[in-house]
Amino acid sequence: MHPQSTPIRVLTVDDSASMRALLLGALTSRGFAVEQCEDGQEALEWLASNEVDVIITDINMPRLDGFGLIEKLRTSALHAERPILVLTTESSDEKKQRARNAGATGWIVKPFDADKLTAALRRVIH
Amino acid sequence: MTAMTPFPPAPGAAFEMVRVTIVQGEARASSDPRVEMSTILGSCVATCLFDPVVRVGGMNHFLLAEPPPHMRGQSFDSDYGLYLMELLINEMLGLGAHKSRMRARLYGGANLNPDLSPIGSVNAAFARQFLERENIPCVFEDLEGTQARRIQFRPASGQVRARLVPSDVAPTEKPLGRPQSALGTVELF
After folding, report:
1. Residue B62: inside a domain, yes or no?
2. How far apart are CA A76 and CA B97, in angstroms?
3. CATH of the domain at B101
4. Spatial CA neighbour of B60 closest among B35, B37, B42
5. Interface residue ranges in chain B relative to chain A, Cβ cutoff 8 Å
6. Which residues of A touch B135 (CB under 8 A)?
7. Which long-range contacts link B167-175 to residues 24+ away (Cβ below 8 Å)?
8. Where are the beta strands (DSSP E) in chain B?
9. Is B183 a member of any domain?
10. What ipTM was estimated for this complex?
11. How many structural domains are present in chain B?
């Protein structure tokens, strides 16, 4: 990406205010345009009328969890092809497989490394 | 207060207790009434979380590290504490707890050596701030001071016993940093 191009728009979905603050700092300081939602339901509502280049979602969230969010987005016309990265402390292969089957684009284990995360973001939007 | 009151003396349990030591860098949760978690804290902090409805509890034990070189401008690596807090919460969610019902108790964060930087207080401040941000009420804290503590926690009842112990009983504490093996591993499908 050359610097004068439009910033990549990222939606982060996480119920932890601390994690949202950490992601916001890490991504905005690296030139991303960041929107944030607190759970899958809020993300779904926001995404019904907004565009974004890539979504980063947690798994464990109230109302609608990460799996549910991915499944619903994959059946929507607007976001069926949208790259969705799961960012989670979950380390079980079963959960990873479930995310993959739901249609996730990738799986990132917390604690995240900001440089690896941004490299993955740039890679999946192409 | 029925939940999270101190232990009755000599519990005389009808079953054998299963003792689990929580070492630095760990987070565990359980709903088993036979389990008693214990840890010894110097400048480390332990968070005890309890959901009184499903009677699930958990404990973590962390010490914030100095940040890695590329994270200049922060005096301590709070990402690591955040990771252990989230790990604890997720372990509890996995056992049916709800974040909105969780209550916290904080222990540790002693400044054992008056000649060194007050790392215990930094850890304590991080833990308090995390709970505040996440809207998890902290119903009790026994933080800072200059002495080590031994903490025993029964996750299924939320009961905690904390005692001061001689500082030489506390294990050597060194910030662990983040688990290097799994540091933000990215797997694209």
Report:
1. yes
2. 31
3. 3.30.1330.200
4. B37
5. 70, 79-80, 82-83, 85-87, 89-90, 93, 98-100, 130, 133-135, 178-179, 182-189
6. 17
7. B167/B42, B167/B110, B167/B112, B169/B40, B170/B40, B170/B41, B170/B42, B170/B112, B171/B23, B171/B24, B171/B40, B171/B42, B173/B24, B173/B42, B173/B43, B173/B44, B173/B63, B174/B63, B175/B63, B175/B64, B175/B65, B175/B66, B175/B77, B175/B80
8. 18-21, 26-30, 35-41, 45-51, 56-62, 103-108, 138-143, 148-154, 159-165, 186-188
9. no
10. 0.84
11. 1
Amino acid at site B48? C
Residues of A in contact with B86 (CB under 8 A): 16, 19, 89, 110
Q: How far apart are CA B98 and CA B95, in angstroms?
A: 9
Residue B152's domain comprises: 18-167
User: Per the CATH hierarchy, to which homologous superfamily does domain A12-112 belong?
Assistant: Response regulator (3.40.50.2300)
Domain-wise residue ranges, chain A: 12-112
Tell whether B181 is covered by a domain. Answer: no
Structure tokens, B49: 């979380």
Q: List chain B residues with CB under 8 Å of A115.
A: 70
Digitized pLDDT (tens) for each residue of chain A, 126 residues in all: 555 578 999 999 999 999 999 999 999 999 999 999 999 999 999 999 999 999 999 999 989 999 999 999 999 988 999 999 999 988 789 999 999 999 999 999 888 888 899 999 999 997
Q: Is residue B4 part of a domain?
A: no
Q: Global pTM? A: 0.81
3-state secondary structure of B30: strand
SS3 assignment, position A90? coil
Q: Which residues make beta-bridge pairs with B35?
A: B18
Give the number of A-B residue pairs with CB atoms closer than 8 Å.
Answer: 75
